[in-house]
Amino acid sequence: MTENDLPAPDSDELRQLLTREDLRSLYAFLYERREHPPTMVEIREHAAAENGESHSQTDRRVRELRDWFKLPAVRSGRVHVYRLEGRAETIRDGRAGISPRVRGEVLSAKRCAQCGKTPTEDHVKLEVDHKIPHSWGGTDDIENLQPLCTQCNHDKQAFYSSLDPFEEQIRAATSHKEPHRRIGELLKAFHAVGVDAPSQVIGVVASMHQYQEDWQKRMRELRELGWDYKTIKRKENGRIRSYYRLTAFADWPEGNIAAEIKRRERAKKAN
Asked: What is the pLDDT of residues 57-80, one digit of tens each?
């Protein structure tokens, strides 16, 4: 699809695709700015002026709009701009969403999965959060949902929105079936653009197709294949975050990666 396939902001087709006014408003702004794509700062300023949205709400709208349209973050000088390029290759407007039953089951834990606060003891409001965002290939399946308090959910959304420029690399890494390959390809993707990979993102991507209770072990096992990395800790907004910087990598072995790692470990012990 090309830009010529984009529906006009006031068309019936767009109203059928985007049933919510906030998404149509964002689409209209991006449509009008096709020749001069806006930065995220400009998008947020527009949404705040038009609808009084917070930054986290606007960031979520941008990710949701990608269910229907190609909206890559493209580097322009020293900043990234968001260019409306065409329709998404796979339209996901048929997504069923989260049913009331599933929502109730997720929130039945009555405790924030991140900070542990509860509505009863700490008077927080719990929200249903997607562990892996839709824009990274996450689903509405209950395995991908968790209860977060409003503050933790806001902080997570702000952090994830800072990774929007790397969305294509993250989605590419999540497509692989083997956890070692997912982790390795993600490290390579961040390394290619000179950015350290956040541990939080690596953990999410590592568990994309099957939960990895100890994804750090999967990372250490990469060293058996000739890979290496540095661990870097930074204090951000009062929290210590860990990052990984790839320092060496090798071609993937033929066949099953986990089996090859075990074979090399046994050979090393035998020697």
From this structure: 787 788 888 878 888 888 888 888
Angle, helices 167-174 vs 199-206, to 10°: value is 30
pLDDT tens-digit readout, 78-115: 888 999 998 876 555 444 467 778 888 999 989 999 89
Q: Nearest 5°: phi and psi at 32?
A: -70, -25
Instruction: Tell me the fold of 164-270.
Output: Arc Repressor Mutant, subunit A (1.10.10)
CA distance from start to end of the chain: 57
Say if CB 222 and CB 180 are below 8 A apart.
Answer: yes
What pLDDT, in 10s, does the model give residues 225-270? 999 999 999 987 777 889 999 999 999 999 999 999 999 999 988 8
Q: In this structure, which topology does domain 3-87 adopt according to CATH? A: Arc Repressor Mutant, subunit A (1.10.10)
β-pairing verdict for 126-130 and 228-236: unpaired
Amino acid at 39: T
